[in-house]
Amino acid sequence: MASKAVNDAVIALIEGAWGNTTPIIKPNQEGETPTDGGAFLTIQFPVATEEHIGMAAVGNRTFRENGAIRLVLSTPRGEGIDQALTRIETLRNALRANDSVPHLKLLSPSPAFLDDGNDSGSYFVLSSVCEYYFDNFA
């Protein structure tokens, strides 16, 4: 799981870019699929590690968190993939454009994964993964 600073920064960034396009399900948030069968976005932080990378006086020691952000977009099946791919590209562009969060570097978000596993019940599911690193000074 990502640190609170990374979690908060990434969620704010995605909410800012996403607006009210679809509901967003955040980590450890109870949420059900929309009752109208509409699309929704899930934000996940499946892995994170931290290492001490710089010695200095207390308050200036550098600890680097490395991890990944996974965005999962579920859209109703049978609508084609154009709108879903456009939505994923909007999210990828938002992650690429991040320069507002000090010490957080978002690396290249992956293109959407497309294969036979995209069909999941009533939904067509696309995901993108973005590696990050975050330098924390303590």
Structure description:
- By secondary structure, the protein is α+β, with helices and mostly antiparallel strands.
- 22% of the residues lie in helices and 38% in strands.
- The protein is built from two helices and six strands; from the N terminus they run αβββαβββ.
- Strands 1, 2, 3, 4, 5 and 6 form a six-stranded mixed beta sheet that branches.
- A hairpin with a 7-residue loop joins strand 2 and strand 3.
- Helix 1 packs across helix 2.
- The longest helix is centred in the first third of the chain and has 15 residues.
- It is elongated.
- The two termini are 20 Å apart.
User: So how many helices?
Assistant: 2
Spatial gap, N to C terminus: 20 Å
Choose one word for the global shape.
elongated
Strand-and-helix sequence, N→C? Answer: HEEEHEEE
Largest sheet, if any?
6 strands, mixed
Number of strands: 6
Radius of gyration: 17 Å
Unreliable segments (pLDDT under 50, ≥5 consecutive)? Answer: none
Percent of residues in helices: 10-25%
State which percent range the strand residues make up. Answer: 35-45%
Overall pLDDT: 88
Structural class: alpha+beta
